[in-house]
Here is the input.
Amino acid sequence: MRFVLDAEQRLFGETLDKLLTEAAVPGVVRDWAAGRRERGLALWRSLADAGVFAVAVPEPAGGAGPLPVELVTAFHELGRHGAPGPYAETVAAAVLLDLLGDEAIAGRWLPAIAEGTAIVTLALPPAVPYALDADAAGLALLVDGGRLCAAVPGGVRASLDPARRLFPVTPGEVLAEGPRVAAAAAEAYDMGVLACAAQLVGTGRRLLEVSVDYARTRRQFGRPIGEFQAVKHHLADALVGLEYARPLVHGAALAYGTPDFARDVSAAKAAAAEAAYAAAKIALQVHGAIGYTDEYDPSLLIRRARALYTAWGSPSDHRARVVASLAR
Here is the structure.
């Protein structure tokens, strides 16, 4: 199946690509990992102005969503550039707050999410046990069984990606409870999975691009290393994996609102995680020792691909979900 974005969707992606390129994101990532938030927060607001969060916020609350295809387009670019921050968590929280139907909570936070004036992070145990970047968020949420609580962060945990700061959380003030919480949390989880899958495909694509460029210029035995069959085959394998994952992600976006959405996002996340992780390993092999040095920008994406591999559920978790859905 072939998916083609329309003119507006392509323009949206191109606009975000330009914005992120001009922002010099690798420097923003290094600042964010060191606890310096100014450039990351400025980028967050710029992306909000471009409509990144509006695609997950309903129109009555100041957004334009939910628009899952546009969300995939946005998160593909966030993944390609490696933007730091709880982007997937914030859009998932927007879905959760909207579906709860609590006007007091939604009326306060949804417009702020759409405008980029509020960062919201979210823990959904067991699949999402930590609240990402809780120290930078204006609101941290925790779904604790049938309760939605304000989350109380503990001490930060180390991550494979230094720019992903993981906080264990305990329940604080109860904001809502009952069956509606579990139902809304399930929908929010699926939207977060979709966003993470799109990020992974974008991250993998960028790693493949820089690896191909490097293979064209790095010379060994008097020839570009890209001329050697072993290198060509590795790069081709990475491309095949990403090209297989990409339509699954877009197909999941088109399934939003149908009974197949949960199944399709799990299939997309499993494929995207495996493809991006494979692209990261191949990028490291092609670049050699330079590939894992902190000073070399692709190392940021290599670590991001590994961290996102298990974020929002591991490939094995999602494959089990797909199998369970087919057995019904």
Remarks:
- DSSP finds eleven helices and eight strands in the chain.
- The longest strand covers residues 169-177.
